[in-house]
Amino acid sequence: MKNFLLLIFVxxxxxxxNNTSAQNWVLQTNPLGFGEEAMLGKVHxxxxxxxxxxxxxxGFLHTTDGGTNWIFVNPFPSDTVECMSDPSVSMSWxxxxxxxxxxxxxSLDSSRGAVIYKTTNSGANWSKVILSNExxxxxxxxxxxxxxxxxALLFNFNGGIVTFLRTTDGGNTWNPTTGTGLFYFVDSNNGxxxxxSGEIGFDPPYKIYRTTDGGNNWTEQFSDNSEGQYSAISFxxxxxxxxxxxxxxxxxxxxxxxxxxxxxxxxxxxxxxxxAVFPLDASxxxxxxxxNDFQNTPYLVYTSDGGSNWTxxxxxxxxxxxxxxxxxxxxTNPQNGWITGDYGRIAKYTGTTSIEDDVxxxxxxxxxxxxxxxxxxxxxxxxxIPEGGYTTIKVYNILGSEVATLLNEMKQPxxxxxxxxxxxxxxGTYFYAMESGTFREVRKMIILR
Length: 449
Fold this sequence. Notes:
mainly beta, Methylamine Dehydrogenase, Chain H, Immunoglobulin-like, five-stranded antiparallel β-sheet, 36 strands, disordered N terminus
């Protein structure tokens, strides 16, 4: 359970005192090279420095230094498998230790079944589970919300048959379940899915569904008869979710999908296709987009206020000889993010912050009382650091067991704030503790449902 909580408690750091920021997307080196043989899919970082990327050949790229260096990891070199890059939904991580990836046995266009690779010790060792040996079956999507509960989607390209599977024991055994398209779960019960009509879902109406019982039953929430196939769906918590797609479609909900609204001010338009969306929390959201030709560089649109205002970020993926759309986005905080693109592209975003002189004149450490308090489901915590050093902020339950790490990194002198989303925790009293140098302070917070 601890690893699940570490995954869903979203962290973002911002300087609060008069600051300026510089924004940069910089290409990183893919050790597999560039082209069809170097195809990449989903990117996921388990800390500010350690991350994983699924590879089209069934392996992984792994970094422990923020992507300055990526190494290729092949769990089973003798296997011939292929992993789908677009959409990038094949890989899932819970905490730093538990990771899974689904691939097709053989190749996607001539598949002989599906296999899952799994690690429970941060990639030191891998095991595998064969999901299917049926001709034509391909592994498409996989997601876990904790170390036990996960879902998988198989598609048979010969017969057009979709199979949904669920596990409650970490992926060791899988059982058939119901489903309705590409899905996203926020916990073991609550999930959403989207699909279109026609033989392979390319035609309208495009629909969004919700389940509250782990996928056993699904209820239609929204139907869209306009042109533009949906590409991706993601939620930051039980209330806030996003769907993006072709024709510049961006939809959002703030009440768990009871209402879905079209976002029309994001800067994308009906000549673009949005392929990926990443909501770090209810406020900070990134969407990838590009014009439907080879001459325009793919870009991201970003909001820091839940969609009221948007800015555009140009990616370094422009190449007149390659399409290079952005397949996957992952940010650990608004200043630290990565994207993957077609033909094996990787880029990192770094937003640098300079603190004004009055911050440098800080003389005392302090850990502020969270606000609001009591809260449901999120709260904010301010803290001050007069000297640079390694700083941690952790949350504990009434028994003293750690339930979340909000900060665990080197920090420069300054005034900061972290946001803590307690979705999934029960009502009650909790404690948060800050350590930096010789300073240590503990405060109490209350979750009130």
